[in-house]
Amino acid sequence: MFSGLSTLGLRSCRSGTWSTNTPTAGLDTPCSKVGPSDKGKNSRTERLDGLEQTASVEQIRFAQECCGRFALGRARMVLEPLDKQPIRLQVDLDPGVLAAGVGPVEAKVKCGQGKCLNLLVLLGTVHASDEVVMRRPSRSTRDLFDDLTHHERAAAIALARSQHLPVRSPLLEAGRHSARFLDGAWHLDDRPWEQVQSEGRVVELPMVATPGWASKLGQKEEVLQVLAELEQAEVCVSSLR
Questions:
Q1: C-alpha–C-alpha distance, residues 206 and 85, integer Å
Q2: H or E element that contains 185
Q3: What would the pLDDT profile of 141-153 be if each residue is shown by its tens digit?
Q4: How far apart are CA 197 and CA 92, in angstroms?
Q5: C-alpha pair distances (Å), 177 with each of 92, 99, 169, 181
Q6: pLDDT tens digit string along 93-141?
Q7: Which of 108, 124, 105, 134 is nearest to 186 (CA)?
């Protein structure tokens, strides 16, 4: 599937004939699985019998089907759980989960001449208590972060820390959660966030029947090889940015 997707994005296929002149941006290794290894056929001079059954074309057709379903927003097939014990996984929580779950906190701070500033307070992504204060985004070219006084920052942070803030994150257990600042640290549901984050979360996943498309991915060794090539391709792309 992955080699088919990478090929679709980097090479062109016209009427079963490969165009190998398209630059591959350093991705020759993953793309060599489809394309140069199978030149296809010229429909004007050769019969196309059996072309659709070749391994390379089947990979591309499968990739096209995946892209089409994603582009059209088709509903995913629901796999029924089997009557077996669920799998328990220990998931590590990133320190920034709380900041993302809380989101920007609005703070209205008084400034000189009786005016007020509408600011946003963001919890720290490494240490939650390292809050960042910024102005509300606008069309103005004014600096959103540095053009604030120490008093304005301190007042905005104090206002955010005085509130009970709702937390919404798919990485936390189902249900309502809240965050507040207690005893010099941010807490999630009255527990220190650093403690919650260090413990992680145990997730239970049901055992489901093997989906029908899994057979198109080939043997396990082939899947692992394709994943390794995809990872190498991502490294190549990152080095070119």
A1: 7
A2: strand 185-188
A3: 777 787 888 888 9
A4: 7
A5: 18, 13, 9, 14
A6: 999 999 999 999 999 888 777 788 889 999 999 999 999 998 888 777 7
A7: 124
